[in-house]
Amino acid sequence: MLIQKNTPATSYGMDCRHLQIPAGAAGGMECILKPGQQSVFHRHHESEIFVIVSGKGRLAVDGKDAGEVGPGDVLYLQPFEGHALRNLSDTEQLGKC
Q1: Per residue in 31-86, pLDDT tens?
Q2: Residue 24 pLDDT more than 60?
Q3: Residue 25 C-beta-side C-alpha neighbours within 13 Å
Q4: How far apart are alpha carbons 63 and 72 in whole angstroms?
Q5: CA distances from 52 to 22, 23, 44, 57, 73 (A)
Q6: Where are the beta strands (DSSP E) in the chain?
Q7: What's the CA gap between 58 and 8, in Å, rounded?
Q8: Rounded to two decimals, what is the model's pTM?
């Protein structure tokens, strides 16, 4: 099965590429937060899983600090949990899938 990446777009204040998964079984995107950048606070009707692949950040969930995140961290957000992710670095991108 081949997963195709679409052209870049901005989503929730992050530079993203949506992943097109055949048969609509699931959705996904890879996103980059530039140094010092923060995503827009938002919520979804579906669950969301982040895999942090590079950089260091801080996650806020429903207005509360949920802690620092880094490469290898897997984060699960329940439906309708409001969240924002901030890149803590002044020089390195934060990448997530």
Answers
A1: 889 999 999 999 988 888 888 999 999 999 999 999 999 999 988 999 999 999 99
A2: no
A3: 5
A4: 24
A5: 24, 26, 19, 9, 5
A6: 4-5, 9-11, 14-20, 28-33, 48-54, 57-61, 64-69, 74-77, 83-87, 94-96
A7: 24
A8: 0.75
Q: What is the total count of domains within the chain?
A: 1
Pairing of the two strands 57-61 and 64-69:
antiparallel
User: Which CATH number is 85's domain given?
Assistant: 2.60.120.10
Angle, CA 25 vertex, CA 73 and CA 57 arms, to 5°: 20
Query: Residue 23 — very low, low, confident or very high, per pLDDT cuts 50/70/90?
Result: low
Q: Which residues span the domain enclosing 22?
A: 4-96
Q: How far apart are the first and last CA of the chain?
A: 18
What is the distance, to the nearest Å, from the Cα of residue 73 to the centroid of all Cα atoms in its chain?
A: 12
